[in-house]
Amino acid sequence: MKIKSPCIEICQLDVDGKLCLGCFRYLDEISGWQTFSEEKKKNILDEIKLRKQ
Q1: Residue ranges making up the domain that contains 4
Q2: What's the per-residue H, E or C state across 4-47?
Q3: Alpha-carbon gap, residue 15 to 6, rounded angstroms
């Protein structure tokens, strides 16, 4: 199963300009998403859950 991007099309960066406040991914995670393995995408989604808290 292909893991979809968590993008919700609300792209706003935090004050440091490194974390999207819409999908809670860091810029390198956003830019590399298409090339990441499914395992890496799953790990990022798990990390996003923690970032939202």
Answers
A1: 1-53
A2: CCCCCCCCCECCCCCEECCCCCEHHHHHHHHHCCHHHHHHHHHH
A3: 21
pLDDT tens track of the chain, all 53 residues? 799 999 999 999 999 999 999 999 999 999 999 999 999 999 999 999 999 98
Tokens of 51: 């970032």
Structure token digits, residue 26: 């860091």
The domain total for the chain is 1
- Name the residue with tokens 């790990």: 43
Determine the 3-state secondary structure of 21 from DSSP: coil
